[in-house]
Amino acid sequence: MTDWEIVLSEWPRFASGFGTTLALFLISTLGAFLIGMIFVNILYGRNPIARKAVGIYIDGMRMLPFLIFVYLLYYGLPSVGISMSAWTAGIVGLTLYHCAYVGEILRGAWSQLPAGQAEAARAQGHHGYRMFGRIILPQLVLNSAPILGNQLIYMLKDTAFLMIITVQELTYAASSVQSMYFVPLEPFVVALLLYWAMSLSIEGLVLIVNRFAKERGLGDS
Description:
Distance between the termini: 53 Å
CATH class: Mainly Alpha
Oligomer: single chain
Radius of gyration: 20 Å
Order of helices and strands: HHHHHHHHHH
Strand content: under 5%
């Protein structure tokens, strides 16, 4: 058998790794976005202590390499009595790390909105999370769609680091095939093409959202 035939015969392993990567990405994207929305509300809220705490968290995560963070979650926390499965550590790591970036992206988008918009919304009877969800948030997402899309691709690529904590995602699958059959190139070419396909799908979604935003006078011109 040729190297390519060997690699293609292991398609169930790649399919399982691809499915795991996709699940990790989708779940952590949802979690990071939800926490990011909470963060941006706090940053524009009236509680100075909460604003300061969220600001410190965001700055801290942005200065911390993801690989070190997830390593500490899985291998470091058991030393203080907190243990979690590799899958859970992967989800928690991706979510808590990237929510800081999502919060900062949304904060930047909010700072570009007209200053009197919130006051006008309150005058029309919209307050709190109702105002945020119906008026502010759609504009934040549409205005920052390209930047959010870029962050999603970073999150997708960060799933590859989870192999160091034994999460059997796509890079883990490629590495296991390589070590099993001593095939140095082909398994990682397959993994690369699958990552590429997922990244192109994200870019396609961003283009759709950006086109929708332009039709409503938002987003990039």
